[in-house]
Amino acid sequence: MPKLTVEGAGEFDVPAGKRLVLALVDEAGVDQLHACGGNAACTTCRVEFVSGEPDQMTEAEKQVLAKKGATGVRLSCQIACDADMAVRCISRLAGSGRANAGKRPADEINPPPVWVPKG
């Protein structure tokens, strides 16, 4: 099982392949935002990697980050926990002014991933 370290929350065992956004909510108990339901249509599920950042990203993640001009962050809805990683949650419900975190994302990465090198 991969280890997920969340700054300020602790270290957690995560089922291999689980979406990072769901691991943050389920295992780490973080109030991570995911306003679009985990479909790479917004950037509310942003995280910063402390270590273990994957070398690949989905084409959808790459496009939405470029469109928003977001750098130094990743979309937790587009990352599978397949290795140890440490993240800083920067997009949380607390203090956001939103009524809720968003519709629970599906277990699978959506849209169906086309993997490309990050950067």
Radius of gyration: 13 Å
* CATH level-1 class: Alpha Beta
Question: Helix proportion of residues, in percent?
Answer: 10-25%
Q: How far is the N terminus from the C terminus?
A: 27 Å
How many β-strand runs? 9
**Please, what is the average pLDDT?**
97
Supply the CATH architecture.
Answer: Roll
- Biggest sheet character: 5 strands, mixed
* Number of alpha- plus pi-helical segments: 2
Could you give me the name of the CATH homologous superfamily?
Answer: Beta-grasp domain
* Lateral strand order in the biggest sheet: 2-1-8-4-6
Give the overall silhouette: globular
Unreliable segments of 5+ consecutive residues: none
